[in-house]
Amino acid sequence: xxxxxxxxxxxxxxxxxxxxxxxxxxxxxxxxxxxxxxxxxxxxxxxxxxxxxxxxxxxxxxxxxxxxxxxxxxxxxxxxxxxxxxxxx
Length: 89
Description:
The protein is mainly alpha-helical. It has helices at residues 3-23, 26-31, 39-46, 50-56, 73-86, and strands spanning 36-37, 63-65, 68-72. The model has no long low-confidence stretch (mean pLDDT 88).
């Protein structure tokens, strides 16, 4: 197999993987589990003060462990994308 053929095959496989993941995002979660973060980690991830994150918490999907809020990196990224579309990031 030539380098050209190998490159063409690799690009085709990559395109198929991307198409599949776009159709069913759960596949991405199975391959690469979301990273969970507490409030301090999430505020650093978003580069905002903890107080700002608490203010936004009603808009960001999260869950509680005891009294602690826990966020996933994917939900934080989705939130940022929504804020950018709204022109408020």
